[in-house]
Amino acid sequence: MTEAGLIKILDFGVARRINLEDAEFDPAKPMNRMPPPGATYTARGGTIAYMAPEQFVTGQSSVQSDIFAFGVVLYELVTGKHPFHRPDLPDFQSIRAIQFADPPPLRDVVSNISSELESVILRCL
Predict the structure, then answer these.
(1) What is the pTM of this model?
(2) Top-level CATH class of 43-124?
(3) Are 103 and 83 in contact (CB under 8 A)?
(4) Which of 7, 50, 83, 96 could form a disulfide with 75 if both were Cys (CB 3.0 to 4.6 A apart)?
């Protein structure tokens, strides 16, 4: 959060490691855009776990997409768990959960969460 109260979200899921010899920027040179081994991305370049439901359908992101991602991060910070991730199932199950499932109730995981914070998180999601 900036001093002016602006929240900034950075998604390093689309960041890529480059070789030292490629550290100098040359706009004429092609960039290596291959994801690291084991990373889970969509064809559109987003990190599945933080993509808003509409991004899977339209491929477009918006301010609402950022608010959703912020809600996922807040949920994780409060509970220690991702609200929609299905680690033992294929990626499409996580995508379907993001699109159609409600997250597990926050109070089931953290009984002493303030109603204000719970409301903010659920509103973001």
Answers:
(1) 0.67
(2) mainly alpha
(3) yes
(4) 83
